[in-house]
Design brief:
The protein is 14% helix and 57% strand. The chain has 167 residues and is mainly β. Strands 1-2-3-4-5-6-7-8 form an eight-stranded antiparallel barrel.
C-alpha cells in the first residue's frame, strides 16, 4: 500500500500539465484589443473586438488617426467598424472580415478628403494562451465617393499586435 501512494502522486503530478493545457484550451476568448496600422485599425490606431457565437464571429471597432504624408493631404481622426468570421482553432485561426473603413486619401485637389467604403478582407490571427495576439490581413475595398475616371477599388491591409482576454 505505501508504494501505491507515491505512484498515484507521480501520476497526478505528471498529468497536471496536460490537464492545465486542456483547461486553457477550453477557456473562451472574450475580447481582443490590438494596436497597429491598416484600414480596420483606423489607419494608425487601436481596434477593439468582442467575440460571440462560440468565438466563431466577432464585431470590431477601430479608432485611429490619418497622418499627413504629403503637403495638402487631409489628416485627422479615423474609424472603422465590421464583423469577422473565424475558422476553428485555439491559437491559430483564419478569418474573413466585412467592414466599413477609410480606403483612400484624395489630395492634390481644392478639397482634399478621406474616402470611406465597404471592404472585404481575409487574414490570420494568432492568440497565445497567455494572451499575446497578432493579426494580419489583406483585402479589397470599394469607395463610391471617388471622382469619375479614378479607380474606386483599393487594397486593404491590417497589421496589429495586442492582447486577448479569455474566460
Amino acid at each position: 500500500m505505501p508504494r501505491i501512494v507515491p505512484l498515484v502522486v507521480l501520476l497526478v503530478l505528471g498529468s497536471l500539465p496536460a490537464l492545465m493545457a486542456q483547461e486553457a484550451a477550453a477557456r473562451r476568448r472574450i475580447a481582443t484589443v490590438t494596436a497597429g496600422i491598416g484600414n480596420t485599425m483606423g489607419w494608425l490606431g487601436l481596434q477593439g473586438e468582442r467575440y460571440f457565437a462560440d468565438e466563431r464571429l466577432s464585431a470590431f471597432l477601430g479608432l485611429g488617426y490619418t497622418p499627413v504624408m504629403d503637403q495638402g493631404d487631409p489628416s485627422g481622426p479615423t474609424f472603422a467598424v465590421g464583423v469577422r468570421a473565424f475558422t476553428p482553432g485555439v491559437k491559430h485561426r483564419g478569418f474573413l472580415a466585412l467592414s466599413a473603413s477609410q480606403l483612400f486619401v484624395e489630395s492634390g485637389t481644392d478639397d482634399p478628403r478621406r474616402l470611406y467604403g465597404p471592404g472585404f478582407e481575409a487574414g490570420y490571427q494568432f492568440a497565445s494562451r497567455g494572451g499575446f495576439t497578432a493579426m494580419v490581413g489583406a483585402g479589397l475595398g470599394y469607395a463610391p465617393g471617388m471622382p469619375e475616371g479614378k479607380d474606386k477599388v483599393g487594397s486593404m491591409v491590417e497589421l496589429g499586435l495586442g492582447y486577448t482576454w479569455r474566460r
